[in-house]
């Protein structure tokens, strides 16, 4: 895979982090399109959902800030969310009343590649790769 575009940001830690991350992802995808590397609407929707879920999980389940890093590859988009906890994500039973538990299930279902690796600072990075879809 060849790296085409990337953008990093720190969406902060709090209720607005997922919204900030989604906005950054929208700008990133628009920049990719302007650079001649557009994704399909289906791919864009999946990228935005995975970004929202990973950042929400980092905000809900870790004590510190998180960082979003997006990469446009030849045939897909890489999403990396780093946070301050060394603990890997743990699937939880989903709740039908809106109390959560669906995010990690969705990310596992939508990503072609998914990994968790430690960061030098003692936290972790969750990496998801979303292939271009039609």
From TrEMBL:
Q: Which UniProt keywords apply?
A: ATP-binding, Kinase, Nucleotide-binding, Serine/threonine-protein kinase, Transferase
Keyword Transferase (UniProt): yes
The GO terms describing molecular function are:
ATP binding; protein serine/threonine kinase activity
- Ranges for domain Histidine kinase/HSP90-like ATPase come to 21-125
Under CDD domains, the record lists:
HATPase_RsbW-like
Q: Which SUPFAM superfamilies match?
A: ATPase domain of HSP90 chaperone/DNA topoisomerase II/histidine kinase
Do the record's keywords include Coiled coil? no
From the Swiss-Prot or TrEMBL record, give the protein name: ATP-binding protein
Organism name: Streptomyces globosus
